[in-house]
Amino acid sequence: MVLTLAARNLFHDRVRLAVTLIGILFSIVLVAVQLGLYLGASKMITAHIDHAKADLWITAFGAKSFEDGGVLLSTRERHQALSTPGVAAVTPLVVKFSEWRKPAGGSSRVVVIGADAEDGGLEPWALTEGTWEDIKAPISVAVDKTYLADLGIGGIGDTAQIALGRVRVAALTDGVRSFTQSPYVYMPLSRARQLLGLPNDGATFHLVRLNEGADIEEVRQGLLSKLESAEVLTTKEFHDRSLQQWLFRTGAGVALIGGALLGILVGTVIVAQTLYSSTKDHLNEFATLRALGSASGYIHQVILAQAGLSAVLGYGLGMIVALIIVYASQSTPLPIIMTWALALGLFTVTLFMCAISAVAAIMKVMKIDPATVFSR
């Protein structure tokens, strides 16, 4: 009976119902897109850190993120790390911004990643064309399909110039995006050093892998006691530092979260206004129910049921639109991510938003004097 009465109240004025659903839909889509962009940006920022085969990262002191490693390290730090008990391997990695000169003229900024996969370094993942063996061939590199137009090339076999030398695209990845919008270019370590004019022993990071059973914190303290001019970070610490740098120090993350909160606020206000207006139009009916002896809890349930039905309908429509936008963004440089946890969270937020919106309507009904029904 509660649901029947709530549904009739809700569908009695179709225009008002449409306004309510549009408000909820707008809120759901805005929150989904903003938080989906936040998840997508977070994944892009930390993707290389998460894919690297490293238990610890040796970085220059004050390195802010994967793309901003600071000054170069040398073999001295590597040898000191190798002599530390518990360390199984130390693999150098070069990560530097450079200029990509397009075949038809013009240039673009790229991030050069130099590593030797066979040594346990960071290798390109999600390769759809070509292999690591192709990348090891003379002047060969790998780039992502998303940025082919930005790099002024068409695909495999095209050539360009990076810093001091010519390169040829020998492999393509799919879905390895860059938060800085500077495409990643993968190549062997020695080639990266040569093109960028770096010393033969120069490295941006040293990836440390531990012996099985070694205590990570104990090894870390041992490394810190030897490496006075470098930092030693766990993968999680470097992951969190990179997120902090790009999402919060730049303000990007705050803007995305702020947009999501704005969407929730707008949706709450629209639903609250509609429920209040609907309740006000049905004051006589609610007064009659109270005069007939209906408990306050029953009337509360009717209003909350109206809010719940609005939430379910609005959420369903909003998620359909949001998923279409998510799908359309997958081939763009900044894809939106939708997870089951986010979808469930959005449903919970929608229910909460509509329940809060019902408070004003409930307060209005509670002020009704049942005697007013007899004065009509």
| Uncertain stretches of 5 or more adjacent residues | none
Q: Which percent band covers the strand fraction? A: 15-25%
Spatial shape: elongated
Task: Label the structural class.
Answer: alpha+beta
The number of helices is: 12
Description:
This protein starts with a helix and ends in a 10-residue tail after the last helix. The chain has two domains: 2-44 and 252-375, no CATH class; 62-228, no CATH class. Helix 1 crosses helix 11, helix 2 packs across helix 11 (296-329) and helix 2 (14-51) packs antiparallel against helix 12 (340-366). The radius of gyration is 29 Å and the shape is elongated. It is α+β, with helices and mostly antiparallel strands and 376 residues long. Strands 1, 2, 3, 4, 5, 6, 7, 8, 9 and 10 form a ten-stranded mixed beta sheet that branches. It has twelve helices and ten strands.
